[in-house]
Amino acid sequence: MAKQQGINLKPTTPAPAGAKETYLQKYILLRKHNVKVAVRKAKMNKSCYLFLAPFAIIFTLFYIFPVVASIFFSFTYYNILETPRFIGLNNYISLLLEDEIFLIGIKNTLIIALVTGPLGYIMSFLFAWLINELPRWVRSVAIVVFYAPSIAGNCFVIFSVFFRGDAYGYVNAFLMNTGIIDNPILWLTNPQYMLPICMLVILWMSLGAGFLSFVAGLQGVDPALFEAGCIDGIRNRWQELWFITLPSMKPMLMFGAVMTITTSFGVCDVTMALCGYPSTDYAARTIVTHLFDYGFSRFEMGYACAIATILFLMMILCNKAIQSLLRRVGT
Amino acid sequence: MMKKNKKAKAVEEKPYVKPLIRRRKPNRSIGGDVALYIFLLLVAVVMVFPIVYAVSSALKPLDELFMFPPRIFPRRPTLNNFSDLFVTMGKSWVTFSRYLFNTVFITAVGTFGHLLIASMAAFVLAKYDFPGGQTFFKLVTVAMMFSYYVTGIPNFIILNKLGWVDSPLAIIVPSFAAPMGLFLMKQFMEGLPTALIEAAKIDGANEWTVFSTIVMPNVKPAWMTMIIFQVQALWNNKAQTIIYSEEKKPLVFALQQIQAGGIARTGQGAAVLVVVMIVPILIFIFSESQILETMASSGIKE
Questions:
Q1: Is the ipTM of this complex over 0.85?
Q2: Residue B270's domain spans which residues?
Q3: Could you give the domains of chain A?
Q4: A37, A43, A51, A293: which to substitute to probe chain B, counting the most B Cβ within 10 Å?
Q5: Nearest chain A Cα to B171, which residue?
Q6: CB contact under 8 A, A154 and B151
Q7: pLDDT one-digit tens code per residue, B113-134
Q8: In chain B, N or C terminus with fewer CB closer than 10 Å?
Q9: Span A275-296, pLDDT tens digits
Q10: Taking CB atoms and an 8 Å limit, are A312 and B146 in contact across chains?
Q11: How far apart are CA B256 and CA B269, in angstroms?
Q12: Count of domains for chain B
């Protein structure tokens, strides 16, 4: 209410001479008023801040502040022992122009993200949608089966048994017995095969929180909409999907996208466990692996922070881009 | 006139035939349903195979582990690998129970604190309109968009300044403010009727009473969701960069040391996989319906 009055202070008639000053004054007046309203509102809701405080303090300290600190340190040379020394853009310059391994890392991360991200996202939705067609008890079993790989801890190391490099690795043995190959393939040490295998494993684990959100969202779509759609001339499940299901699930699609992007740019566990750290020819190096290397092995914190900042920018920009894309679904 | 009557009669006489397969939804063909079942079954087998294989390897005796060609299911299942695991752990300098205690302690305290602190914040963010609230929530949503790795290094520096490096606090305290939990809890609490809170206020309850006696009991499904995500994060946390002292290391770290023990420990390695994955999966199985209820409100609205 008070806010509304404040806005009404704006002059509606053409301003007289010396208008610039009066506009400025009025703008300041308006601002002051808004601040006053906010302060009074804040005083009325004092206990709210008490409730929020514990979370807000820890959150700021360990999530917001580190991002700022990371950007700050990325312009310095810092090795924890000495005080940080300002060196301008040098970290970024050597990262992007001199550090060939980092460029491999960026390339690998982008390849992994561009392949497993969209594929994993589509898989999450597709399986959630198909599972939703099942009767109730089959559905709950199916959800456990599909979701289990993503919460199974480091169960993915079992893949290193399947893809072992000698003739006794199961994949090799199978291919040799069927006569497709003559000699065993070094799946996890040959740079040619490392990334595809990692992507396969990542895809296996990609039905995570986003998948759960999709399943829950699909159950929440109003059944009356489907009946109405049936009367209005929707004839098969594909039309139903595009015209009814997808538009009513937009918020979940958004959530799933955020989850997918965050995990697909942060790949490091799988590549480190399967291909070794460091991997042959750095062929499975990702941005995060590089970050670990410089941050926790060489303690070049400034350099590592520059890597972290680049990763941060990539994640945020990608999220924003995908969000504006998703806004168009079904419209 | 006659003709019309006849037609009406014909319609009346047509008996109702119960369809062979009851249709639950419109717009579904039977062929499509069959194809769907076959397809899902195939994918489910692929998804579950590595897990089943891990479990069955853990149950195989030594001679079957290296049998070629391999069998998916053990012929003579044994729990030897698990008992060997305990023997190996018992011989290590730090006892198995100590590792287990570390992990359980970190997981329990971290989860409980997260549940309390994040729910408190979620409650006011969902139910009150105060300056800064919406902005704060937007920040939390943005924080979900970058992973833990981005903040890893400054976090280490901050923890170092606080003197928390090499203590369980370094894992527990940051985990209190995991953005995901707050986000899910806030979205779920928005579904709670405001009238409920107002009624309690009229009866003279203060904010804390409203929170602890009215809001929290009504959002139990969201608890389970927060718990599964938090347990999953903490149980699998190796903390190799933050905790150095052997006696403070979590279980997963110790188990992975055994796993790295080479060919001779293949069976024990598989047993480790089972021990590590069984806890989050069991929690999920037992709380599935509640988790799905919460996830229904997980969408990011604008």
A1: no
A2: 89-295
A3: 1-44 (no CATH), 93-326 (1.10.3720.10)
A4: A51
A5: A62
A6: no
A7: 999 999 999 999 998 888 888 8
A8: N
A9: 887 888 888 888 988 988 888 8
A10: yes
A11: 8
A12: 2
